[in-house]
Specification:
This protein is an alpha/beta fold. The protein is built from 14 helices and 12 strands. Strands 3-4-12-9-10-11 form a 6-stranded mixed sheet, with helices on both faces. The protein has a 4-stranded parallel sheet with strand order 7-6-5-8, with helices on both faces. The longest helix has 17 residues, at 156-172. The chain is globular. It starts with a strand and ends in a 7-residue tail after the last helix. The model has no long low-confidence stretch (mean pLDDT 95). Bound molecules: pyridoxal-5'-phosphate. Pyridoxal-5'-phosphate (PLP) binds next to helix 9 and helix 13.
Protein backbone atom coordinates (compact mmCIF):
# COMPACT_ATOMS: atom_id res chain seq x y z
CA UNK A 1 0.00 0.00 0.00
CA UNK A 2 1.50 3.31 -1.02
CA UNK A 3 -1.18 5.63 0.42
CA UNK A 4 -1.11 9.40 0.07
CA UNK A 5 2.34 10.62 -0.91
CA UNK A 6 3.68 14.00 -1.94
CA UNK A 7 7.24 13.86 -3.15
CA UNK A 8 9.16 12.32 -0.22
CA UNK A 9 6.38 12.98 2.33
CA UNK A 10 3.99 10.20 3.36
CA UNK A 11 1.71 9.29 6.26
CA UNK A 12 4.45 7.29 7.95
CA UNK A 13 6.34 10.57 8.42
CA UNK A 14 3.48 11.82 10.61
CA UNK A 15 3.60 8.63 12.68
CA UNK A 16 7.38 9.03 13.03
CA UNK A 17 6.96 12.69 14.03
CA UNK A 18 4.59 11.71 16.84
CA UNK A 19 7.39 9.57 18.33
CA UNK A 20 10.13 12.13 17.66
CA UNK A 21 8.41 15.07 19.36
CA UNK A 22 6.84 13.14 22.25
CA UNK A 23 8.99 14.78 24.91
CA UNK A 24 8.63 18.32 23.52
CA UNK A 25 5.07 18.88 22.31
CA UNK A 26 2.23 17.69 24.51
CA UNK A 27 -0.83 15.76 23.38
CA UNK A 28 -3.27 18.64 23.79
CA UNK A 29 -6.84 18.20 25.05
CA UNK A 30 -9.77 18.03 22.65
CA UNK A 31 -12.03 20.17 24.77
CA UNK A 32 -15.81 19.94 24.33
CA UNK A 33 -17.26 23.37 23.57
CA UNK A 34 -20.65 23.74 25.22
CA UNK A 35 -21.44 27.08 23.57
CA UNK A 36 -20.61 25.96 20.03
CA UNK A 37 -22.18 22.50 20.45
CA UNK A 38 -25.42 24.13 21.56
CA UNK A 39 -25.34 26.64 18.75
CA UNK A 40 -24.70 24.06 16.02
CA UNK A 41 -26.71 21.17 17.49
CA UNK A 42 -23.81 18.75 17.22
CA UNK A 43 -20.77 18.00 19.33
CA UNK A 44 -18.00 20.55 18.74
CA UNK A 45 -14.51 20.02 20.16
CA UNK A 46 -11.62 22.45 20.38
CA UNK A 47 -8.05 21.20 19.87
CA UNK A 48 -6.18 23.20 22.46
CA UNK A 49 -2.84 24.00 20.80
CA UNK A 50 -2.69 27.10 22.97
CA UNK A 51 -1.48 24.78 25.72
CA UNK A 52 1.83 24.01 24.01
CA UNK A 53 5.00 25.61 25.37
CA UNK A 54 5.36 28.72 23.11
CA UNK A 55 1.55 29.00 22.92
CA UNK A 56 1.04 27.56 19.45
CA UNK A 57 1.12 24.32 17.45
CA UNK A 58 4.25 25.51 15.61
CA UNK A 59 6.42 23.80 18.22
CA UNK A 60 5.43 20.45 16.67
CA UNK A 61 6.88 21.15 13.23
CA UNK A 62 9.89 23.09 14.49
CA UNK A 63 10.77 20.30 16.93
CA UNK A 64 10.41 17.56 14.32
CA UNK A 65 12.59 19.48 11.85
CA UNK A 66 15.35 20.48 14.25
CA UNK A 67 15.53 17.01 15.82
CA UNK A 68 16.08 15.60 12.30
CA UNK A 69 19.35 17.54 11.92
CA UNK A 70 22.65 15.72 12.36
CA UNK A 71 25.38 16.74 14.83
CA UNK A 72 27.22 18.83 12.28
CA UNK A 73 24.08 20.72 11.18
CA UNK A 74 23.12 21.33 14.78
CA UNK A 75 26.59 22.67 15.53
CA UNK A 76 26.20 25.27 12.74
CA UNK A 77 22.69 26.31 13.83
CA UNK A 78 19.37 27.23 12.21
CA UNK A 79 17.83 30.28 10.55
CA UNK A 80 14.24 31.12 9.68
CA UNK A 81 11.86 33.89 8.71
CA UNK A 82 8.60 34.01 10.59
CA UNK A 83 5.62 36.18 11.44
CA UNK A 84 6.16 35.23 15.03
CA UNK A 85 4.93 31.85 16.27
CA UNK A 86 7.22 29.77 14.07
CA UNK A 87 10.19 31.96 14.98
CA UNK A 88 9.35 31.60 18.65
CA UNK A 89 9.14 27.81 18.33
CA UNK A 90 12.44 27.57 16.44
CA UNK A 91 14.06 29.76 19.11
CA UNK A 92 12.59 27.58 21.85
CA UNK A 93 13.89 24.37 20.27
CA UNK A 94 17.33 25.88 19.66
CA UNK A 95 17.52 26.91 23.30
CA UNK A 96 16.50 23.43 24.44
CA UNK A 97 19.19 21.83 22.32
CA UNK A 98 21.76 24.55 22.99
CA UNK A 99 22.21 25.50 19.33
CA UNK A 100 22.38 28.83 17.50
CA UNK A 101 19.19 30.33 16.01
CA UNK A 102 18.80 33.41 13.81
CA UNK A 103 15.21 34.62 13.32
CA UNK A 104 14.40 37.09 10.52
CA UNK A 105 11.25 39.10 11.21
CA UNK A 106 9.31 41.68 9.23
CA UNK A 107 8.85 45.17 10.62
CA UNK A 108 5.14 44.46 11.26
CA UNK A 109 5.58 41.63 13.76
CA UNK A 110 4.01 42.68 17.10
CA UNK A 111 6.51 43.73 19.74
CA UNK A 112 5.34 41.08 22.21
CA UNK A 113 6.34 38.35 19.78
CA UNK A 114 9.71 39.96 19.05
CA UNK A 115 10.45 40.19 22.78
CA UNK A 116 9.41 36.58 23.38
CA UNK A 117 11.85 35.41 20.70
CA UNK A 118 14.65 37.56 22.09
CA UNK A 119 14.00 36.26 25.60
CA UNK A 120 14.55 32.74 24.27
CA UNK A 121 18.08 33.70 23.37
CA UNK A 122 17.78 33.79 19.57
CA UNK A 123 19.50 36.38 17.37
CA UNK A 124 16.91 38.64 15.72
CA UNK A 125 17.18 40.30 12.33
CA UNK A 126 14.34 42.73 11.55
CA UNK A 127 14.22 43.20 7.80
CA UNK A 128 11.59 44.39 5.32
CA UNK A 129 7.86 44.93 5.41
CA UNK A 130 6.72 41.55 4.14
CA UNK A 131 7.47 37.86 4.51
CA UNK A 132 9.08 37.57 1.05
CA UNK A 133 11.77 40.08 1.95
CA UNK A 134 12.34 38.55 5.40
CA UNK A 135 12.61 35.10 3.78
CA UNK A 136 15.15 36.33 1.24
CA UNK A 137 17.23 37.67 4.11
CA UNK A 138 17.03 34.34 5.92
CA UNK A 139 18.21 32.51 2.78
CA UNK A 140 21.10 34.95 2.45
CA UNK A 141 22.16 34.14 6.02
CA UNK A 142 21.64 30.41 5.35
CA UNK A 143 24.17 30.57 2.50
CA UNK A 144 26.63 33.01 4.01
CA UNK A 145 26.86 31.32 7.42
CA UNK A 146 26.06 27.67 6.64
CA UNK A 147 22.95 27.57 8.82
CA UNK A 148 20.01 25.26 8.09
CA UNK A 149 16.86 27.06 6.93
CA UNK A 150 13.75 25.93 8.81
CA UNK A 151 10.76 26.72 6.60
CA UNK A 152 7.64 27.86 8.48
CA UNK A 153 5.46 25.52 6.41
CA UNK A 154 6.90 24.07 3.18
CA UNK A 155 9.10 21.38 4.68
CA UNK A 156 8.61 17.64 4.97
CA UNK A 157 9.48 17.47 8.69
CA UNK A 158 7.54 20.60 9.57
CA UNK A 159 4.37 19.35 7.84
CA UNK A 160 4.73 15.89 9.42
CA UNK A 161 5.08 17.55 12.85
CA UNK A 162 1.90 19.60 12.39
CA UNK A 163 0.18 16.45 11.10
CA UNK A 164 0.43 14.86 14.55
CA UNK A 165 -2.56 17.07 15.46
CA UNK A 166 -4.66 15.10 12.96
CA UNK A 167 -3.50 11.80 14.45
CA UNK A 168 -4.35 12.94 17.97
CA UNK A 169 -7.82 14.19 17.01
CA UNK A 170 -8.86 11.00 15.23
CA UNK A 171 -7.30 8.78 17.88
CA UNK A 172 -9.23 10.61 20.61
CA UNK A 173 -12.50 10.97 18.65
CA UNK A 174 -12.68 8.74 15.56
CA UNK A 175 -16.30 9.84 15.11
CA UNK A 176 -15.29 13.39 14.02
CA UNK A 177 -16.80 14.15 10.59
CA UNK A 178 -15.54 17.71 9.98
CA UNK A 179 -12.22 19.37 10.80
CA UNK A 180 -11.84 23.17 10.74
CA UNK A 181 -8.23 24.22 10.23
CA UNK A 182 -6.60 27.64 9.79
CA UNK A 183 -4.71 28.05 6.51
CA UNK A 184 -1.87 30.48 5.91
CA UNK A 185 1.14 28.87 4.24
CA UNK A 186 -0.71 25.59 4.63
CA UNK A 187 1.71 23.54 6.74
CA UNK A 188 -0.86 22.97 9.47
CA UNK A 189 -3.58 21.98 7.01
CA UNK A 190 -1.29 19.83 4.84
CA UNK A 191 -0.10 17.81 7.82
CA UNK A 192 -3.57 17.38 9.29
CA UNK A 193 -4.98 16.52 5.85
CA UNK A 194 -2.29 13.89 5.25
CA UNK A 195 -3.13 12.19 8.55
CA UNK A 196 -6.90 12.63 8.44
CA UNK A 197 -7.40 11.60 4.78
CA UNK A 198 -5.33 8.48 5.45
CA UNK A 199 -7.18 7.47 8.62
CA UNK A 200 -10.66 8.56 7.47
CA UNK A 201 -10.72 9.20 3.70
CA UNK A 202 -14.21 10.75 3.59
CA UNK A 203 -13.70 13.26 6.42
CA UNK A 204 -14.64 16.88 5.62
CA UNK A 205 -11.61 19.16 5.69
CA UNK A 206 -12.49 22.83 5.79
CA UNK A 207 -9.82 25.48 5.79
CA UNK A 208 -10.26 29.00 7.10
CA UNK A 209 -8.35 32.09 6.02
CA UNK A 210 -8.71 35.83 6.41
CA UNK A 211 -10.79 37.85 3.95
CA UNK A 212 -7.81 39.74 2.57
CA UNK A 213 -4.40 38.43 1.56
CA UNK A 214 -5.55 34.79 1.56
CA UNK A 215 -2.66 33.47 -0.50
CA UNK A 216 -3.58 29.77 -0.59
CA UNK A 217 -7.09 30.51 -1.86
CA UNK A 218 -5.72 32.80 -4.59
CA UNK A 219 -3.19 30.18 -5.66
CA UNK A 220 -5.76 27.37 -5.77
CA UNK A 221 -8.10 29.59 -7.79
CA UNK A 222 -5.33 30.47 -10.23
CA UNK A 223 -4.15 26.85 -10.42
CA UNK A 224 -0.58 27.93 -9.73
CA UNK A 225 1.48 29.95 -7.27
CA UNK A 226 0.63 33.64 -7.65
CA UNK A 227 1.97 36.61 -5.71
CA UNK A 228 -0.53 37.88 -3.14
CA UNK A 229 -0.21 41.14 -1.31
CA UNK A 230 0.23 40.74 2.45
CA UNK A 231 -2.48 42.81 4.12
CA UNK A 232 -2.31 43.31 7.89
CA UNK A 233 -5.06 41.56 9.89
CA UNK A 234 -6.00 41.10 13.53
CA UNK A 235 -4.99 37.52 12.72
CA UNK A 236 -1.32 38.45 12.30
CA UNK A 237 -0.28 34.79 11.93
CA UNK A 238 -2.40 34.28 8.81
CA UNK A 239 -1.64 36.64 5.89
CA UNK A 240 1.59 35.97 4.01
CA UNK A 241 2.76 34.77 0.62
CA UNK A 242 3.41 31.31 -0.73
CA UNK A 243 6.81 31.20 -2.41
CA UNK A 244 7.16 30.30 -6.10
CA UNK A 245 9.31 27.26 -5.27
CA UNK A 246 6.58 25.69 -3.10
CA UNK A 247 6.96 21.92 -3.08
CA UNK A 248 4.36 20.47 -0.71
CA UNK A 249 1.68 22.73 0.76
CA UNK A 250 0.14 24.11 -2.44
CA UNK A 251 -0.47 20.71 -4.07
CA UNK A 252 -1.52 19.17 -0.75
CA UNK A 253 -4.07 21.88 0.07
CA UNK A 254 -5.30 21.86 -3.55
CA UNK A 255 -5.81 18.08 -3.62
CA UNK A 256 -6.72 17.09 -0.06
CA UNK A 257 -8.88 19.94 1.25
CA UNK A 258 -12.62 20.19 0.51
CA UNK A 259 -12.75 23.98 0.64
CA UNK A 260 -11.17 27.01 2.22
CA UNK A 261 -13.58 29.68 3.50
CA UNK A 262 -12.82 33.22 4.56
CA UNK A 263 -13.70 35.20 7.67
CA UNK A 264 -13.46 38.95 8.23
CA UNK A 265 -11.38 40.67 10.88
CA UNK A 266 -14.65 41.65 12.61
CA UNK A 267 -15.69 37.99 12.77
CA UNK A 268 -12.28 37.05 14.15
CA UNK A 269 -12.54 39.72 16.85
CA UNK A 270 -16.00 38.43 17.78
CA UNK A 271 -14.58 34.92 17.99
CA UNK A 272 -11.76 36.07 20.30
CA UNK A 273 -14.36 37.67 22.56
CA UNK A 274 -16.61 34.59 22.35
CA UNK A 275 -13.73 32.28 23.28
CA UNK A 276 -12.80 34.37 26.29
CA UNK A 277 -16.35 34.93 27.52
CA UNK A 278 -17.93 31.54 26.97
CA UNK A 279 -15.02 29.10 26.80
CA UNK A 280 -12.49 30.93 29.03
CA UNK A 281 -9.88 30.50 26.31
CA UNK A 282 -7.38 33.18 25.30
CA UNK A 283 -6.83 33.17 21.53
CA UNK A 284 -4.82 35.35 19.19
CA UNK A 285 -6.57 36.36 15.96
CA UNK A 286 -5.20 33.48 13.89
CA UNK A 287 -6.04 31.08 16.68
CA UNK A 288 -9.66 32.25 16.73
CA UNK A 289 -10.32 32.00 12.98
CA UNK A 290 -11.76 28.46 13.20
CA UNK A 291 -14.22 29.56 15.89
CA UNK A 292 -15.07 32.62 13.78
CA UNK A 293 -16.16 30.27 10.99
CA UNK A 294 -18.19 28.16 13.44
CA UNK A 295 -20.04 31.30 14.57
CA UNK A 296 -20.91 32.09 10.93
CA UNK A 297 -24.15 30.82 9.36
CA UNK A 298 -22.13 28.78 6.85
CA UNK A 299 -21.23 26.41 9.72
CA UNK A 300 -24.86 25.27 10.03
CA UNK A 301 -24.23 23.03 7.00
CA UNK A 302 -21.16 21.34 8.47
CA UNK A 303 -21.58 17.68 9.32
CA UNK A 304 -20.92 16.92 12.99
CA UNK A 305 -19.22 15.99 15.20
CA UNK A 306 -16.82 18.84 14.47
CA UNK A 307 -13.28 19.55 15.69
CA UNK A 308 -11.74 23.01 15.32
CA UNK A 309 -8.15 24.01 15.93
CA UNK A 310 -7.36 26.68 18.52
CA UNK A 311 -3.95 27.27 17.01
CA UNK A 312 -2.33 29.90 19.21
CA UNK A 313 -2.71 32.35 22.08
CA UNK A 314 0.09 34.84 21.45
CA UNK A 315 -1.83 38.08 21.78
CA UNK A 316 -1.01 40.96 24.11
CA UNK A 317 -3.47 41.14 27.01
CA UNK A 318 -4.05 44.86 26.31
CA UNK A 319 -5.04 44.11 22.72
CA UNK A 320 -7.42 41.34 23.76
CA UNK A 321 -9.04 43.36 26.53
CA UNK A 322 -9.57 46.35 24.24
CA UNK A 323 -11.79 44.32 21.89
CA UNK A 324 -15.33 45.57 21.40
CA UNK A 325 -18.03 43.64 23.21
CA UNK A 326 -15.84 42.25 25.94
CA UNK A 327 -17.28 44.60 28.52
CA UNK A 328 -20.90 45.61 27.96
C1 LIG B 1 1.26 29.68 11.60
C2 LIG B 1 -0.08 29.78 12.19
C3 LIG B 1 -1.24 29.40 11.49
C4 LIG B 1 -1.20 28.93 10.05
O1 LIG B 1 -0.35 27.85 9.81
P1 LIG B 1 0.22 27.53 8.34
O2 LIG B 1 0.94 26.27 8.47
O3 LIG B 1 1.11 28.67 7.94
O4 LIG B 1 -0.97 27.46 7.42
C5 LIG B 1 -2.45 29.47 12.15
N1 LIG B 1 -2.55 29.92 13.42
C6 LIG B 1 -1.47 30.30 14.12
C7 LIG B 1 -1.65 30.78 15.52
C8 LIG B 1 -0.20 30.24 13.55
O5 LIG B 1 0.87 30.63 14.25
Amino acid sequence: MTGIRYDDLAFQDVRDAAVNIRDIACVTPLKPSFSLSKRLGTNVYLKMETMQDTGSFKIRGAANKILSLNEEERARGVVTASSGNHGKSVAYMAKRLGIRAVICLTEIVPEGKVNAIRDLGAEIVIHGSDQDIASEKAHEIEKAEGLTFVSPFDDRHVIAGQGTIGLEILEARPEIETLIVQVSGGGLMSGIALAARTLKPDINLIGVSTLKGAAMIECIRAGRIVPVEEIPSIADALPGPIQADNRYTFPMCRDLVDKILQVSDEQIEEAMVHALKYEKIVLEGGGAAAIALLLDDRAKNFKGPIAAICSGDNVAAEKLLALKGLIE
